[in-house]
Amino acid sequence: MSEATSEVDRFLALVAAAQGRDIRLTSIQAGLLVAAELGIAHDSRAFARLLGIAHSLVLRELNVLAEREGVLQIVKRDLRTMRVHYALPPRDET
Prior knowledge:
Blueprint: H1 3-21, H2 27-38, H3 44-51, H4 55-67, E1 73-77, E2 84-87
Antiparallel strand pairs: 1-2
Helix pairs in contact: 1-2, 3-4
């Protein structure tokens, strides 16, 4: 098994685990959260390109996540490219 395959398998396992913790998450939403946590992608276009899915689908799912309090933060929007930069909210270390 190649290293790339094992990384893909790890990513998919983490997406499945995120969905297991929150059944409201779609696969794309869980993928966005995992990608941010792992530092794989922090903007909508990069995520769409890495996964080979339409940017419009990513934008829709990203906006749904941003509406849920404490799940994901929109950091910046580029109106020209429609790219949305996002981040996970800071964790409480208490």
